[in-house]
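User: Structure tokens for both sequences below?

Assistant:
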Amino acid sequence: MGSFEIKTPEDIKKMQEGGKILRAVKNAVAKKVKTGVSAKDLDEFAEQMILDLGGKSSFKTVPNYRWTTCVNVNAGIVHGIPTKDLVFKKGDVVSIDLGVLYQGFHTDTSITVAIDPSAQVSKMLKVGQNALDLAIVEAKPGKRIYDISEAIEKKVKAGGFNPVRALVGHGVGRELHEEPQIPCFVSGTRNESPKIPVGAVIAIEVMYTQGKPDLVLEDDGWTISTQDGKISALFEETVAVTSHGPIVLT
């Protein structure tokens, strides 16, 4: 699982400022998901807004990744390249993942939105958001990573969906991906799981699907999709752990 990179109150303050930028960008980008809009349109808008607000793209610091966002549609769950050929249509379920680098610290967030969703898709997205909210509550000193994973898995499965097992949330800070790993599912025993300390900052990710959790890497070398082609979704926030409990930074 790995150990935590502890952040000082000053570090967390910087991450709060970066997270504020990221939250504004995420909300603005989500509103732009409409029929006829392309993933490239979203990516260019997000990059410009991040720069205008004084931040930099976190994802462009990833080796060989040249974009500000990852945009996935329907069966795509993570790392989708935001191309001009990916044009949204009615019924699409669109996941947007983005990060901001600000004053030396990264923040990371994701949201899934649907264009004219069915009742089943609306339920699915509500379940994912609720699972994330419940997981954030568990991000307290003395709790364990296991408690976060359990909160996600219970809510997702109770809704009739499956958390993916090949992808995980993570620590975040001076690096975009830090230890520890934070699964969407229970792994091992609670007592083996790391205790969450004050000063931890983690990206809690809820990644789940309507079908089986098995995933496949697409031919572009980046996009990861469900193997059975069923719809997937993604919700993520960066959360700081303080003596008073969790603070959502994004």
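Moving on to the next sequence.
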Amino acid sequence: MYKASLFFSLLLGAIFLIPTALPADPPSHEVWDALLKKYVSATGKVNYKGIKADKTKLEDYLKTLSSNAPESSWSKPEQMAFWINAYNAFTVKLIVDNYPLASINKLHGGKPWDHKWIKIGGKTYSLNNLENDILRPQFKDARIHFAVNCAAKSCPPLLNTAWTASNLNANLDAQAKKFINNPVFNKLSDKKVEVSKIFEWYAEDFGKIIDFLNKYASTKVSAKAKVSYVEYDWALNE
């Protein structure tokens, strides 16, 4: 009896001594932040030629993302920042790998969004997967559309700072306000608005469009204002 008790005591002790894997912390986005600050202007114009010459740093960052998929232990802002950075960084890589290029729509038969090539945490994603299967349904925040960048002139400009949990909410608000009030993308008046196609394509995310615009618009729009949509310019955002 004593031997059996001793055996089980030793076995139990051994079990507790077995090292268990701790959840990984979110990766650093400092490399991506440095690239953005160096090669993206304050207005979101991207120097793809410069990034191509500095491609090793971009690829190192993407490897970091690939091997550090978000964990359930991360906060929602940490997860959201990760996926926004991933979308933007992999989009930049897609352009850089094919640069010079007139438009992202020239790639993969005009369907670059559906091409599955992004490896994160042992899974393979397309850009559409990142946006429509992760970012939109998991976080349910329409401001995401002003954070992800599709490498086109009509897309909300690429922020020249990496997204982090600490700057997430403030930058989402700032990006929404800058985009909505920029007449290059949206023309607002009391009785008439001409807005980006983004508001048409993702109407379900924005709810009542006038109400959403008025959260950020400098010029308040009447609830009865006529709404039309501006044609999208898919030329490269350089």
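User: Anything stand out in the second?

Assistant: The mean pLDDT is 94.
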